[in-house]
């Protein structure tokens, strides 16, 4: 697979992507309906917290969330603003404008909102605005990536009905459990994870003619491929192409592979590949998230390091040319 094989335009009309879009849309509608039905049942003074799971989204210490509170006089909501987000994860101007356009008042405008965006209104309006905020502004690709919890005036935990496919905080054990109850196949689940990490909509992922999802990482490209039999996700990158195999190269790849906590490096048909497999059976989104984060960092670093030593061409290395080929006696067969 070469750079020219990846289409510049996203395949938005790709059938499986379109099916996923419909499923995701319906999941968000179900979430909004259950949210609107649940909030009025909260006791006065209680609040319901909804957050994007940072362990699934790779946002680290940045917690994007909304808190809904039931008062004697009605219902209000607070949404996290840049004042509570670390640098690198703050909302840009377009996102702030989107919050205001959805109906949120800027921080400090509504009484008691402090450093958060504030919102008041009837429960149906709040449910719609909150759903769109979590999805469109904070970037949750699916309700399954949301965590919720209800607490009373004394901050005691309150029992609450299931909010569609969102997860109660009691299910949190440091990793996202398998997404099995959603009626999604493995490819759909993979797209949701990739969309979360790349902060994009699942329908806007870059998918090539082989069905591989492409993620640019500096001068490298990382692909995510789903295999059915056996169920497996391959996270891989063509680190260098048009490279001359040599004993020195194979020794270097073997050394680097032995130092990698997961995955391997190998050379075949003049291309150096990096690959990290993820099991598809009992799928764990956090395992795929980790593999993608490892591979994007690894590929972008290794293509520069190996290119400087062995030549070849990087995926996005314009003007790259192979170094002088090694001596004939150094050449050996493919590294399998």
TrEMBL record:
Q: Per the database record, which ranges form the TY-Chap N-terminal domain?
A: 26-146
Q: Where is this region: Disordered?
A: 315-336
Pfam families (UniProt xref)? TY-Chap1 (PF22551), TY-Chap3 (PF22552)
What InterPro entries would the database entry show? Answer: TY-Chap_M, TY-Chap_N
**What name does UniProt use for this protein?**
YbjN domain-containing protein
Q: Where is the TY-Chap central domain?
A: 191-317
């Amino acid at each position: 697979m070469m750079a020219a094989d990846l289409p510049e335009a996203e395949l938005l009309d790709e059938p499986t992507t379109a099916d996923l879009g419909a499923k995701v849309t319906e999941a968000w509608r179900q979430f909004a309906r259950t949210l609107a039905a649940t909030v009025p049942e909260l006791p006065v003074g209680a609040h319901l917290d909804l957050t994007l799971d940072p362990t699934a989204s790779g946002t680290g210490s940045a917690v994007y969330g909304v808190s809904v509170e039931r008062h004697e006089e009605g219902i209000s909501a607070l949404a996290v603003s840049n004042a509570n987000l670390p640098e690198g994860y703050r909302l840009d101007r377009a996102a702030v404008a989107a919050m205001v356009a959805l109906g949120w008042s800027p921080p400090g405008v509504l009484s008691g909102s402090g450093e958060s965006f504030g919102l008041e209104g009837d429960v149906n309006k709040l449910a719609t605005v909150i759903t769109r905020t979590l999805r469109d502004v904070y970037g949750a690709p699916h309700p399954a990536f949301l965590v919720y919890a209800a607490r009373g005036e004394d901050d005691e935990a309150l029992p609450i009905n299931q909010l569609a496919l969102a997860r109660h905080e009691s299910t949190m054990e440091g990793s996202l459990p398998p997404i099995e109850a959603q009626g999604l196949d493995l490819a759909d689940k993979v797209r949701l994870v990739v969309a979360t990490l790349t902060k994009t909509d699942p329908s806007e992922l870059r998918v090539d003619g082989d069905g591989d999802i492409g993620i640019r990482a500096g001068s490298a490209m990382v692909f995510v491929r789903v295999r059915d039999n056996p169920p497996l996700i391959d996270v891989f990158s063509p680190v260098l192409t048009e490279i001359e195999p040599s004993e020195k190269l194979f020794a270097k790849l073997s050394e680097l592979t032995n130092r990698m906590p997961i995955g391997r490096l190998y050379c075949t048909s003049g291309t150096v590949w990096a690959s990290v497999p993820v099991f598809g059976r009992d799928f764990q989104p956090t395992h795929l998230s980790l593999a993608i984060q490892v591979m994007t960092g690894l590929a972008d670093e290794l293509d520069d390091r190996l290119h400087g030593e062995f030549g070849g061409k990087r995926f996005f290395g314009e003007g790259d040319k192979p170094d002088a080929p090694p001596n004939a006696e150094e050449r050996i067969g493919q590294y399998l």
